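Please decode residue identities from the backbone states below.
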């Protein structure tokens, strides 16, 4: 069963620098056992930078927006433990040489981040034309796991297959990994496309995403962070929250709000409108995530 975010579980507050959301996670009646390695921490999600995009009517600052975002993250009062880019690092390039050139340029820009612990996910613009070959050369594996202060992170690749699928092999890998986790373990899923059918007509879905969600449903403290749709969006599948991030090149319209999925044109009266990134303050013991949305500005 799916539903929009229940107000009792998800509270919007007014925060300095942008909107703040608090997402509470369901826990077992007995609660999770305390792990001495656990502790609150902060990470930052950036998404859909589309380096190589060049349409001045959509974003006249196409060569500068990513750099502004890097500066904004570096200027945060509290630096995150790590940073994750949830896909579409670069804009589609049919020429393999151009694709690699864009990835090299993107890599060189994000090297300016103060935080050096950076996790990369592929988007379809990065990986669907060559099954992720160039992405692997520059950024390593397209699906993997890591642990941080008692939280288990799982990065899923639902873009290297041009059909927008995870695939049986990766689903088996996911099942094998989850089998090792306690049902009360805090688990964060990172992916590019939504794992639920947000709006399949616009390819805002994963064809076998329901299979991944079936594997995740027994886990009471799972949460999904994704990109792809270039806007903030929140959704529930059972007890599992899904949070989409804004993009860093151009916003897209609300799902199904117009006939075609087209970038929202640049508004000189509201430059950088709809562009931004988020910080996620992870409250491990309180079983909550505090999401703060930061806009990109011209300052």
């Amino acid at each position: 069963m799916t539903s929009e975010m229940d107000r009792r579980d998800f509270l919007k507050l007014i925060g300095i620098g942008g909107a703040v959301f608090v997402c509470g996670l369901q826990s077992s009646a007995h609660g999770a056992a305390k792990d001495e390695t656990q502790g609150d921490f902060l990470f930052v999600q950036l998404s859909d930078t589309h380096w190589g995009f060049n349409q001045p009517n959509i974003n006249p600052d196409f060569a500068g927006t990513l750099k502004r975002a890097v500066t904004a993250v570096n200027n945060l009062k509290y630096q995150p433990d790590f940073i994750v880019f949830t896909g579409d690092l670069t804009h589609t390039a049919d020429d393999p040489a151009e694709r690699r050139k864009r990835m090299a340029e993107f890599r060189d820009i994000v090297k300016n981040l103060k935080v050096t612990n950076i996790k990369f996910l592929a988007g379809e613009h990065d990986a669907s034309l060559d099954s992720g070959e160039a992405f692997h050369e520059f950024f390593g594996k397209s699906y993997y796991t890591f642990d941080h202060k008692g939280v288990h992170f799982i990065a899923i690749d639902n873009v290297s297959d041009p059909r927008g699928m995870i695939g049986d092999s990766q689903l088996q890998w996911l099942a094998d990994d989850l089998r090792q986790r306690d049902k009360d373990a805090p688990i964060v899923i990172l992916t590019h496309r939504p794992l639920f059918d947000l709006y399949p007509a616009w390819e805002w879905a994963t064809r076998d995403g329901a299979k991944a969600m079936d594997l995740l449903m027994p886990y009471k403290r799972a949460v999904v962070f994704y990109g792809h749709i270039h806007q903030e969006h929140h959704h529930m599948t059972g007890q599992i929250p899904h949070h989409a991030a804004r993009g860093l090149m151009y916003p897209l319209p609300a799902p199904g709000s117009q006939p075609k999925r087209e970038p929202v044109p640049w508004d000189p009266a509201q430059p950088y409108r709809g562009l931004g990134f988020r910080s996620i303050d992870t409250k491990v013991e309180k079983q909550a995530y505090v999401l703060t949305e930061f806009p990109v500005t011209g300052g």
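Observation: The two ends are 44 Å apart (CA to CA).
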